[in-house]
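cron nightly-structures :: item 1 of 1
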Amino acid sequence: MSDLVSTTDEVKQRDARTSIRQLERAISVNDDTTGFYYAKDGIIDLRTVASDLTEHHRRILHRPPKLYSKVIDALEAATDCFWSKIDPGDKTKALNRLHATLKDRFHCHRVRLVGLEKYVSISVERLNIQRSMVSFITAEIAQKDAKLNLKIAGDQRKIAHASKSDSQAMKALSLLGAAFLPGTFIASIFSMSFFDFQAQVHVSSKIWIYFAFMVPLTTAVLLGWIFWDHKRRRLQHQRRSASNSIGSDAEKAILYELAKRK
């Protein structure tokens, strides 16, 4: 029994407590965690931390002191039963000394195991606290990832709207070019009789006909384009506001679900 309840268990428990302190410093992200293997490029490896939490928990509970306390109680009860059953004449001086030695050993081991049990219970409680902290950090990271994904989705939606707007602007420029083609054609036709380059350079008195067609047509096209562009921008603004509202509602719903999971 003395071999089973040796100081080796106490040494193992102290070593486990040292490892628990390293875990606590790593999880609390102190400045002195840079030398630990939990930190890689300044980032704490939570997978390794969780694995070590489980391993230390297993090591601490590998040989529970409470089990040996029950064994010592049983041995002491058997010793007392034996001592009460033998005849008083058989209780020699050597046997009395042996019985007293056994009782002292039982008491010493029981006191040591009580202290070791308290030590183990505190270590387990500290491990549970760190496990809860890891779960909280993991949930917080998941929440930040969800917010980041929502922000990325919103930015992609804005980029899609901007690309669509640029496409519509190019279409508008093409439309303007097509609208002015008739004016150019009219000018080409009218220029045949408006200008006479044979004798002297002069301009026909009927050039006003060109401007009479060109100016109203150009003005009408520009006003129509301005009206169309204004209407298009207003519709885009309404769609963007509705899309942002939907994205905000989705974000609130996701954050609410994450909060419920905590």
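cron nightly-structures :: done
The chain has two domains: 1-153, 167-192+209-261.
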